Amino acid sequence: MPEMDGIELTRLLQNAVPDVVVVLMTGKASVPSVVEAMRSGAIDCIQKPFRATTLLPVIERALEVQRLRASNRRLEAEVQRQFEQLVAVNGELDAFAARISHDLRGPLVNMRGILEIAREDAINQELPDPKMLGLGVESGNLALRMVKDLLDFARLGDQPMAMAPVELDKVLRDALNAVNLLTQGRNIIWDVGPLPCILGQEGLLLQAFVNLLSNAIKYTSGKEVAHIAIRAVASPSSAAEIRFSDNGAGFDSKLADQLFKPFRRLHSNDEFIGEGMGLANVRRIVERHGGAVRAKGSPGEGAEFTLTFSLINLPAVTTDQVSG
Q1: Hey, what domains does the chain have and what are their CATH numbers?
Q2: Contact at 8 Å (CB) between 214 and 182?
Q3: Rounded CA gap, 163 and 165, in Å?
Q4: Phi-psi region of 312 (alpha: psi -120 to 50; beta: other; left: phi over 0)
Q5: What is the pTM assigned to this prediction?
Q6: Where residue 49 falls among pLDDT bands split at 50, 70, 90?
Q7: For the chain, which terminal residue's Cβ has fewer other Cβ atoms within 10 angstroms, N or C?
């Protein structure tokens, strides 16, 4: 052949098509050339002239080697795919453990606070406040629902979720009740507007709302009067956009993407206690609903988080301010 010999061609073929099987035919075979051909990837070398009875067994063996190579490559690809799935599952398990420890803290803290109040009443031989005990029971029920929802969420993996119409107004009311104890002794002005109906999983959306409200309450703790708004905003597309905004500590918008990474925080524990899982959970939940989350803020001037979902029916936006 011009420019190259059969051994060089074999090397090029092996690099280009790893599963190809090469049998060299030559009229000038020598021990060194045959060894070099085998090292380059040829499985056999036939001396010219040859008979068909000599060639046929070699071709049969070559085809079998090719089948084995293709089979091995498929097995390697399958092993690699399963390994990557295992890594992803382990990552999900780690994230799941972090979500459990983070999200259950709210209702458990509520229950502990209510039990401490009830214990003080018992020590002082006073009857416990039935309303307060009722809140404790609601916190317990919320914790149980959260465990169930998180377990269901973990089992889903990347499978599609079963969606149903969800009234976000109801989700918001439940979330506000869940964070009620965090607002005690605070002067918070709530700006709450009507929210739309979307397709989703109510329990998981409740957890996302609770995380966002808890953050807003926490990061406005340095304000004498906190302003927290939850509004549906007009969208140029057929999407529902829900915006959570506050006048709290805020953050540098250039670092917004860091907020949604597990265990990443833009404030130290000396400023605000936390684990850095709340917003990571929010993003995961919203994205599993086919939506998206974006954030912007300014240090000392507040933060804004916008959740985007597929819309079912977006009511007109009106102002409804409530002091709390």
Answers
A1: 6-77 (3.40.50.2300), 104-159 (no CATH), 160-324 (3.30.565.10)
A2: yes
A3: 7
A4: alpha
A5: 0.53
A6: confident
A7: N
